[in-house]
Amino acid sequence: MARQTSFLVTLVLCTAPLSAQTAWLPEDTRVAAAQSFADQLKAIDFEPHLSDPARAVGARKGIDKLATVIDQWGVDGVLERTPVFPQIPLPATSNPLVASLTSFGVCSLPLHLELATTQGEKIYVITAEFSVGLLSAFLRHQFLEAGGTDEALRDFLTSGSMNSVSLDIQASEELRAYVNEQCAPTLTALMR
Where are the domains of the chain? Predict the structure, then answer.
């Protein structure tokens, strides 16, 4: 199955169930994301002098910062910053939240840690993956609050046409570079 499916469905749909009182990033999800972020930074030997607890604190601050920027942008700001891909035939949807979530999912496709050659590139890939995951969780929350369902999201994100587009992007160095170019402004702004 395409990376689009595994990445988005896992990160977006495995978020804790939402209720009217629940924020888009529940505390247990925030803690799990921070721990995973810390583990990935440790795996690339980022700041090896740090203790595991110190790295965990830094990772938590990183996740909190990303979440804060997304909150500051709000729905309109996230939608305005959604990358567009005129050269890629993404499946059509009339729902701007689903369209945005799909576009950010496409941003994850060229993020391959094994292709990063420098420490800076590795940090970018890891941070960009978490950025996409948080943006996706935010958009999912908005979609569910507006009456959408996880089943509808899953059906769209795992459709044959979406999987086909995902495979095409992953198989083409040119398309991966194009996706990176389209996504970089928003992801970089989020990570600042």
Answer: 26-191
